[in-house]
Amino acid sequence: MTYEEQYLLTTLKCFIYTQSPTPFKGDMEELIRITNKHFLMGILGYMMTNYPNDISAEQKAGFRKNSLKYIGYFANAEEKMKVLISQMNEAGIDHLLFKGFVVKDYYPVPELRTFGDIDFLIRKEDRKKSDELMIANGFQRKDDWEPVYSYKKEIEYYEIHTDVMEIDVSPKADYVSYFAKTWKRAVNKNEHTYVLPPEDHLIYLLTHLAKHINGSGAGIRMYLDIAAFLKHFEGQLDIQYLKQELETISLYNFTTFVFAVVQKYFEVNVPFVKNDISEETFEKYMEYTLEGGVFGKVERDSGLITLKQEGRDTRVASRKGERSRLRIVIGRLFPPAATIESRYTYLQGRHWLIPIAWVHRLFITRDKIGEHAKEARSIMNVDQAEVDRLKEIYEILDL
Question: Do the domain assignments include residue 376?
Fold first, then answer.
């Protein structure tokens, strides 16, 4: 890692513990570039402003302005969410809060936990009532993928779920069925507002992290969430239950590595950990994590991401490898029914309707045809060395 990358990680650790970081001695533009890539400028600005540092008055003023901008924006977003929660309660709509809107309260300054949208879960039978409430309050429907519905109004952007996990993270377990029982473990917080017990929320956060890694990638903010969570609930978690459930969904080995990462870089106490990890492995993995940004897409080939998701033989040198890549492109355009039936629920038990689903899918994604063409070219041309590197990362994670 570069000095600037290491400094960012150390500063995030200091933020978690409300400690003063050491004075910065590197390339400030590079530090800002890396931090922006991970949507963490609010925290960096806060730390540069509120603790001693060898930076100019002009730089400090800039950091203060940036930090206050983040705090103001996300404080406003929180207040608006509280209004929506009140409206949900008045309408008698059960809603379960999870992810960023809950995790932010484990940060020393909650308003510095950034998010692009706010997610919450409703019961499937409340879908129509929830939609009517959102439209009546001036929200515009953005996406309608059946398990996930998004709405936007000015700075407000919500993803309302009827399932918290709409796809399987890997072939190792039935994640959709496992998380379908989420409401059974929900704890009533107030009126129609629910939350998850800490153990179940942590299991979800780890699965969500694995899902993003299996998709385009996951940046350092998701690991910071895990660190803040573990610090907040230190000594309070049912460790045996955690281990048992993580084994059930084949994520125990993955979790031991994630815990090792947050222990090493954020120095939090973890419930259990993988101890035989070399410095070289840590270095490779953190380099991979930092380079991709919040969701792993920055400066990373989209074709590489697709090949990783498909998990097929992609050797460039052979005709077999070229045919394999072509099959992946065709599969992306015309996916099998089992792959998309969670989003197009009319396919469930009626896979013979797949041609209709392909037309339906083409129609609702017609504005992304250019992106699909670009992805197809990228799949065929991606560098094999990067494919091999990614394979090594996945072996480390046991995904």
Answer: yes
